[in-house]
Design a protein that fits this description.
Its EC number is 3.2.1.93. By secondary structure, the protein is of the alpha/beta class. It is built from 17 helices and 22 strands. The protein is globular and about 75 Å long. The chain binds alpha-D-glucopyranose.
């Protein structure tokens, strides 16, 4: 059985991964084509984002039918073959389950709109007056979170897009429908679940205006969330000891995350939180521009590492996913130090305590595309915010700069397989374009060069498998006040591993002797992104984005 503490998960956004039939959309057969590539990288699990039947308003996070494969992505036979072919390479499949909401095209919602009581109770409807929404809560994609339905003279709640209606978890019948969905996919041989915005499912019993925020404090980590997760666990994946789960936790707290992931609580295996990815939000606002706050980033990592270890919880470690801009464009320098900054960021995240996640293309350094016109964007959130910023009077150039840095489409461009047309992603017209840099930055080039970012990731993955200290060791932040360096020690019994990362394009000097006792210890270099000797521990000069890990025994 796999040990998730020694495993690495690779996230696939199928729509942009590999198109096998030339229709411009990636598909499941495309994923099968690339399994040998993933095997070479050395990952243990593939997390597939939604490929169920969906109108694709939110690229599949708006589900119309939980039990079938959308024809854009292929067929159920393709999925079964994918499970089988992955298994034969010792890779398991994690499915993405979206249970906070369904598409308004789901038959449950259609029946609800037709007035069927049973199905109205699957959602959150409230009596109200036209133009006076039930509360002032904001949808996460912009606008009010309540939508008025003329025919019923009622509103329904949608924390996301207006076509994503929130489900009513207080209804037992609905919860049982959900268990059926999970059990259906377990029978297909799936070995894990990623639960979309799962900490938002428990809504308050009465709805009131939020006079100090956007409403999230009323439904985030809601009052029945732990009860609902325990019940979900007990009725589905909790019956098997080889299934892992990861919950996507929006605006959560360490305290709750410990409960979600402490094995004694019997809820989930691990959690994603996003606090470290808000360090470039000006006054907490995503749609703004700001250099990242490095001190804050270090403190967040330190608090979460310590908090989760002390509480026996488990973190998912990640920089990138389909909702985040590319991390090298964000916290690195892709123009002057593409390889150095991409590999430094990888070291910093991979060797902490938790299970690392790699997002497609990250392993060979894909960057943000820098789209220049709104026509190149596809994402519903980006387009909504384009319009919101326009209506606030922000000028076009500014808006485009914000989108270039913040849009979710930054990570949704086609995987750059090689230097052929459309980056080798499709023979047709891609649903979203690849940036021109695919001619240089692509998987083929990375595979052909043993010194590439790809092989650096491969090494990081193997270190976690070999070094128990990385998988199970304690965490201590080093050089706490250093303005450029994020360094930490992992420790297990009498062995320690020191990880050092220069987050800037400037050289700097560090002194490890003050914090680590090196006397009489053997030093072994595990990985580094420059060719250097790490045999002295005072006045070490670090080059731009230099990063290394050494083992002391
Ligand atoms: C999650 C998904 C995101 C989606 C949202 C609504 O945050 O990762 O892509 O838009 O939930 O389902």
């Amino acid at each position: 059985m796999k040990d998730f503490k020694k495993s690495v998960v690779y996230q696939i956004y199928p729509k942009s991964f590999k198109d096998s039939n030339g229709d411009g959309f990636g598909d499941l057969k495309g994923v099968i084509e690339k399994l040998d590539y993933l095997k070479e990288l050395g990952i243990d699990y593939i997390w597939l984002t939604p490929f169920y039947i969906s109108p694709q308003r939110d690229n599949g996070y708006d589900i119309e039918d939980y039990y079938n494969v959308d024809c854009r992505y292929g067929t159920m036979e393709d999925f079964e073959l994918l499970v089988k072919e992955s298994k034969s390479r010792n890779i398991d499949i994690i499915l993405d389950m979206v249970f906070n909401h369904t598409s308004t095209g789901h038959e449950w919602f259609k029946k609800a709109l037709a007035g069927e009581k049973k199905y109205k109770d699957y959602y959150i409807f409230r009596k109200g007056k036209k133009d006076i929404p039930i509360t002032n809560w904001k949808s996460k994609f912009g606008g009010n979170a309540w939508e008025y339905v003329e025919a019923l003279d009622e509103y329904y709640l949608h924390l996301f897009d207006v076509t994503q209606a929130d489900l009513n978890w207080d209804n037992k019948e609905l919860r049982e429908e959900i268990y059926d969905v999970v059990n259906f996919w377990i029978k297909k041989g799936v070995k894990g679940f990623r639960l979309d915005v799962i900490n938002l499912i428990s809504k308050p019993s009465t709805f009131e205006d939020d006079n100090i925020g956007d409403g999230r404090r009323f439904y985030t980590d809601g009052h029945k969330i732990h009860e609902y997760l325990k019940e979900l666990n007990e009725n589905t994946f909790g019956k098997y000891d080889d299934i892992i789960t990861v919950g996507e936790m929006s605006s959560t707290s360490i305290e709750n995350c410990i409960k979600y992931s402490n094995p004694y609580e019997k809820e989930l295996s691990m959690v994603f939180n996003f606090h470290h990815l808000k360090v470039d939000y000006k006054d907490g606002e995503k749609w703004s521009l700001m250099d990242f706050d490095f001190k804050k980033l270090k403190n967040i990592f330190n608090n979460w590492q310590r908090g989760m270890i002390d509480g026996n919880g488990w973190n998912a470690l990640f920089w990138c996913n389909h909702d985040q801009p590319r991390v090298n464009s964000r916290f690195g320098d892709v123009k002057k130090f593409h390889k150095e900054s991409s590999t430094m960021l990888a070291t910093a995240i991979h060797l902490m305590n938790g299970t690392p996640y790699i997002y497609q293309g990250e392993e060979f350094g894909m960057t943000n595309p820098e789209f220049n016109t709104i026509e190149e964007y596809r994402d519903v959130e980006s387009i909504n915010y384009y319009n919101i910023l326009k209506s606030k009077g922000v000028d076009e150039e500014n808006i485009m700069n914000i989108l270039k840095s913040k849009s979710r489409d930054n990570s949704r461009t086609p995987v750059q397989w090689d230097d052929s047309k459309n980056a080798g992603f499709t023979t047709g017209t891609p649903w979203i374009y690849a940036p021109e840099n695919y001619k240089k930055i692509n998987a083929k080039n990375s595979l052909n060069n043993k010194e590439s970012i790809f092989y650096y990731y491969k090494k990081l993955i193997s270190i976690r498998k070999v070094e128990n200290t990385i998988a199970y060791g304690d965490f201590r932040m080093l050089l706490q006040n250093h303005k450029q360096v994020y360094a930490y020690e992992r420790k297990l019994n009498d062995e320690s591993i020191i990880i050092v990362n220069n987050f800037y394009d400037k050289e700097c000097t560090i002194n490890l002797k003050e914090e680590i006792d090196f006397d009489g210890k053997k030093v072994e270099l595990l990985i580094s992104n420059y060719k250097c000797n790490y045999d002295k521990f005072e006045n070490i000069k670090l080059k731009p984005y230099e990063s290394f890990a050494i083992k002391l025994k």
